Amino acid sequence: MNKNVVNITDYKEVAPGDMDSFNDGTNIKKNSGNSNNRNNDGGNHNMDKFATKEELKHTQELLSEKIDHRSDVIEEKIVSVKSQIESSNKILYWILGIFGTILTSLLIKLLTK
Prior knowledge:
Blueprint: H1 53-112
């Protein structure tokens, strides 16, 4: 059997109304003297792996702000690229218009000779 697994043999039934309140009257087996019981204080030495609801909410708010900022930056870049494409298209239309006019005039001169 694994050393980290503790069999619960002496437990106290908790009423459904008391499920969220852990005071002295509803604690399940404080300390039996068993050295393998690693959860005798409601947690263990690895509690730094866990976060409170407030910490999670704060982290969620920070991440939401970062996501909003990034999406704003991406939107600005998209608008910038879009305006560059539009200006490039205008230049291309002018160039094609000029070459088209020159080509048309040359064709007319060649065909009318």
